Amino acid sequence: MSGEGAPKLDVQGAKDLKVAVVAAQWHTVVMDGLIAGAERALDEYGVTDRTLLRVPGSFELPVAAKVLAACEYDAIVALGVVIRGGTPHFDFVCEAATMGLTQVSVDSGIPVGFGLLTCDNEQQALDRAGLPDSKEDKGHEATTAALSTAVLLRGLAG
Ligand code: DLZ
């Protein structure tokens, strides 16, 4: 780990992309920060064709992403927060969401920004939520990655 943080990505030409943000509902304060970060990124890159879909929990992110991927979106951003509890549930939800989102992205060829926070405690999640006191802004980061990849892939397709 170099500790240098997220790379500076080229997002030029993203403004005409059609983008869906799918967001879980658990951990409201952190989720509000992640969604605000995603919307800030979409504003910065001039994306106006955008949809926000709220699903119950992070486990539901992959199925929603799969249906959105069939609806001609150019990029999808998946946002969720899973906080470790005293049971193995955390591991199951994290693994299902991560594997499911990966599968949707690879199978569809549509970039899915990975904005799923998997944290040991609430403070770790708050630190990454893009809130005024946060150290990182993972909603913005995941959105930037998805848009940058969509622009790149569109270029390859000609
Ligand atoms: C059940 C559950 C638990 C315990 N924790 C979280 C969590 O920290 N973050 C999250 O997004 N969702 C959680 N869920 C809900 C599951 O993702 C899912 O919505 C339910 O198991 C119903 O399918």
UniProtKB/TrEMBL annotation:
Enzyme class: transferase
Family matches, as InterPro entries: LS, LS/RS, LS/RS_sf
Pfam families cross-referenced by the UniProt entry: DMRL_synthase
GO biological process: riboflavin biosynthetic process
Catalytic site: H89 (proton donor)
Highest taxon listed in the record's lineage: Bacteria
Pathway where this protein functions: Cofactor biosynthesis; riboflavin biosynthesis; riboflavin from 2-hydroxy-3-oxobutyl phosphate and 5-amino-6-(D-ribitylamino)uracil: step 1/2
Binding site for (2S)-2-hydroxy-3-oxobutyl phosphate: G86, T87, R128
EC number from the UniProt entry: 2.5.1.78
Family as reported in the entry's similarity comment: Belongs to the DMRL synthase family.
Function: Catalyzes the formation of 6,7-dimethyl-8-ribityllumazine by condensation of 5-amino-6-(D-ribitylamino)uracil with 3,4-dihydroxy-2-butanone 4-phosphate. This is the penultimate step in the biosynthesis of riboflavin.
Annotated protein name in UniProt: 6,7-dimethyl-8-ribityllumazine synthase
Gene: ribH
